[in-house]
Amino acid sequence: MKVAILSPIAWRTPPVMYGPWEQVASNITEGLVEKGIDVTLFATGNSITKGKLMHVCDRGYAEGTNLNPKVYECLHISQLMEQAGQFDIIHNNYDFLPLTYSRLIKTPMVTTIHGFSSPEILPVYKKYNDTGFYVSISNSDRSPELDYTATVYNGINVKEFTFNPSPGEYLLFFGRIHPEKGTYEAIQIAKRSGRELIISGLIQDQEYFDTKVKPFLNDKDIVYVGNSGPKVRDELLGGAYTLLHPISFEEPFGLSVAEAMLCGTPVIAFNKGSMPELILHQKTGFLVDTIEEAVEAVGNIDYIDRKYCTYWSSSKFSSKKMVEGYLGVYEEVLLGSKQCL
Asked: Which of 45, 87, 101, 144 could form a disulfide with 58 if both were Cys (CB 3.0 to 4.6 A apart)?
């Protein structure tokens, strides 16, 4: 089987720091290669893979380059589509744009829908609903207007995370700094709990950071440490008393939630989107609805078994399990394609 993995090109695959879609595309690629699959990764030129690498730009357009995103998106996607016949299956991790090529090629295309950035993109998915093979990353993130081949949870490389049985006392917010991720709410939870909060993440909304986050930063109990790479991420997640994830949107997955639990760290999250699928309430953390409930949950974290958090995450959200899920999807798609010949 020859597989083409189409990754985004905002960041390197895998990303140096932020880049969740690139991270998942990398984990899929490397997992398939480990199983002896012939894989070609279409990503940035500085990407790292044990498979074959194809690229149209040396670095991602979000990595301080002067690349025009739309221009290089077109060049990137077309590079794969113009040689689609060389592959048995294409795995699209680049949202809806590649679907517009899908009826112009014979190679079947599996599209992982990493979330709906806006209802305005739904018409594209609907147009190719009868010929596309859609995979959701959680059962909660499914549109009733689309048909799905499977749900495959995002998988993380368990080798990159360390179980910590003796965490510190700090609370952690780990994710992009944006209103929908709840950085401000995490600060309020920490303040009311009387605990230190460490904040790590990409500033995605500068005005929000300047008005809702920066005024509380003091390098004492509310600390911002910037955007963290893999080594620091592992240390922060494993050393945290608990991860705070007070989201205000229907989040399709949440890699940091699975990663924290893999390190043994319980998660307190607002009960939205995929959180009930990721967190086992009162076993690997707490699902709450308000800041007050979150503060109460902080007081109950000692009742959570950190070893069980690691067991839960590794059994549900490992890259190995994800790759097995996608191999099942590929086989189902290829079998269906042969029967249609």
From this structure: 45
User: Kindly report the CA angle at 58 between 55 and 64, in degrees rounded to 5?
Assistant: 135
Nearest alpha-carbon partner for 261 in 229, 282, 240, 284: 284
At 219, the pLDDT band (50, 70, 90 cuts) reads: confident
104 burial class (0-12, 13-18, 19+ CB within 10 angstroms)? Answer: exposed
Which three-class secondary structure state does DSSP give residue 323?
A: helix
| Nearest Cα to Cα of residue 55 among 12, 93, 23 | 12
Name the percent of the chain in helix, strand, coil, to the closest 5.
Answer: 40, 15, 40
The secondary structure of residue 302, as a DSSP letter, is G
Amino acid at 182: G
C-beta of residue 199 within 8 angstroms of C-beta of residue 184: no
Tell me the β-bridge partners of 171.
197, 242
Q: Which amino acid is at 283?
A: K
* Separation CA 75–CA 69 (nearest Å): 10
Helices (H) and strands (E) in the chain, counts: 11, 13
Summarize the confidence of residues 217-246 as an average pLDDT: 96
C-alpha–C-alpha distance, residues 138 and 308, integer Å: 22
Read off the tokens for 90: 């294409």
> All domains of the chain, ordered by start, with CATH?
2-155+318-340 (3.40.50.2000), 158-316 (3.40.50.2000)
Condensed to tens digits (0 to 9), the pLDDT of residues 239-272 reads 999 999 999 999 999 999 999 999 999 999 999 9
- Residue pLDDT, tens place only, 84-103: 999 999 999 999 999 999 99
